[in-house]
Design a protein that fits this description.
The complex is a heterodimer of chains A (226) and B (185). In chain A, 33% of the residues lie in helices and 29% in strands. In chain A, helix 3 packs across helix 4. Chain A has 226 residues and is α/β, with parallel strands linked by helices. The relative contact order of chain A is 0.17. The mean pLDDT of chain A is 93. Chain A has a 5-stranded parallel sheet with strand order 3-2-1-4-5, with helices on both faces. Chain B has 5 helices and 9 strands; from the N terminus they run βααββαβαβββββα. Chain B has a 9-stranded mixed sheet with strand order 2-1-3-4-9-8-7-5-6, sandwiched between helices. Classes of the chains: A alpha/beta (226), B alpha/beta (185). The interface between A and B is medium-sized, with 25 and 23 residues.
């Protein structure tokens, strides 16, 4: 089955993409670029870097811009899926939804309207097992946004390695946040994945942080051999 | 031992982790032994009960092979059919299916007393369905949303169908089903 992956550049959509590659044919990545920083569905600070990740993955990237209004962004998603169907012949969509019924409901509806299959291979995943599997598979992931207590500015740009994962586990237990950041507590960017030909090297980044809210913006990056 | 039946479009499919693995995880968590088989090759001889898992909305291949579910007519041990699993159970017993899409959270009202829903009158449930399933002869409607019947049970046998997905926000229902399995002599 020819599939498109709704891709944000973060760990969940990248891992869902990799899972889909084990069973079906992934033919394109689809990125929704939201101009609204409050977007419920699609906002993420380094979305433009998805082009670099797609290049490394050897996959075409379909970028669709949206104003990011609560309901019209679904129309934009619909437009992106129609374009992906026309250009790449997709028969289904893969998403990285884990727990969000809000997100899953909307994605399922749009796919059903268009007669597309909808795959959510991380749906209801055990958070601990998922994070272990992610690292075991060779994904390298950095934190590019923090939006909850107790995260401070030092978390911005930090790689989620075993030591950081242990720290996240402690924080998740003590502060009742999700280990995967599914509740919007933090955002991630994938710098290397088993389906990348080269890794993303960040040459310049900037940090903005205030009151447990911060963003690591990748200003300049390139692809380099591992 | 619980027999988990995978109704997805093929064995070990991309949908498996979405519809089968969450049920397996609940069984593991509650210390139950289980084996999982694709619906094309069920292994139910030694099973104390069977759980028929859901499928993706576009995935209706299982419905084209009703003969592969006729074993349910003589199984007589507890069955829990989830979403597409309810459709397979109900149609094996002769129920009709009508088009009717429902995606998202829906309010479910309990209609008939049953140990599965004891103490609950209403609850919110997550549905991802492309059709409404009729109540087959010999079954009763246990619960319904505004749009359609959401739960059925055989009049005399512990055969249950849930049109919504209990593994999302209502895993207590799967726990209760397992409790009913344990209570059987």
């Amino acid at each position: 089955m020819r599939l498109g992956v709704l891709f944000s550049g973060g760990k969940d959509s990248a891992f869902a993409c990799w899972k889909a590659m084990q069973k079906e044919e992934v033919v394109c990545l689809i990125t929704i670029v939201s101009r609204n920083p409050e977007s419920y569905m699609f906002h993420t600070p380094n979305i433009r870097l998805a082009a670099l990740q797609a290049e490394s993955a050897g996959l075409p990237l379909l970028e669709m811009e949206t104003e990011g209004e609560k309901e019209t962004e679904l129309l934009d998603l619909r437009g992106a899926l129609l374009a992906a169907r026309e250009r790449f012949g997709i028969e289904g969509l893969v998403t990285g939804a884990i727990l969000s019924v809000y997100q899953a409901t909307r994605l399922q509806r749009v796919c059903y309207e268009l007669g597309l299959w909808c795959f959510n291979p991380l749906w209801l995943a055990d958070q601990d097992e998922y994070m272990e599997e992610l690292l075991d598979a060779g994904f390298r992931v950095i934190i590019t946004g923090v939006f909850a207590s107790p995260f401070d500015g030092s978390w911005l740009g930090r790689e989620i390695d075993r030591r950081t994962l242990d720290e996240l586990r402690m924080i998740a237990r003590e502060h009742r946040i999700t280990l995967t950041g599914e509740g919007g507590e933090f955002e991630t960017f994938v710098i290397d994945a088993p389906f990348f030909s080269r890794r993303v090297a960040i040459e310049e980044g900037s940090r903005v942080y205030r009151n447990h809210n911060g963003v690591f913006r990748i200003e300049r990056a390139g692809l380099v051999a591992r | 031992m619980i027999s988990v039946i995978d109704l997805c479009y093929r064995e070990d499919s991309l949908s498996r982790e979405e519809f089968v693995t969450p049920v397996e995880r609940l069984l593991r968590r509650s210390g139950r032994e289980f084996n999982t088989r694709h619906y094309t090759a069920p292994d139910i001889e030694a099973a104390d009960a069977a759980i028929l898992c859901g499928t993706a909305l576009m995935d209706t291949g299982f419905a084209e092979r009703p003969d592969l579910f006729y074993w349910l007519l003589e199984f007589e041990r507890p069955v829990l059919g989830i979403s597409s699993g309810m459709r397979a159970l109900a149609t094996a017993f002769g129920a009709g299916v009508e088009p009717g899409c429902g995606i998202g959270m829906t309010e479910v009202e309990v209609l008939s007393p049953d140990p599965l829903f004891a103490g609950k009158e209403r609850f919110s449930a997550y549905e991802v369905r492309g059709c409404a399933v009729g109540v087959p002869g010999g079954f009763v409607a246990l619960a319904a949303s505004k749009e359609c019947v959401q739960a059925i049970r055989h009049r005399f046998l512990p055969l249950y169908g849930l049109l919504f997905h209990p593994e999302v926000r209502n895993d207590w229902l799967i726990e209760r089903f397992l409790g009913l399995v344990d209570q059987r002599p």
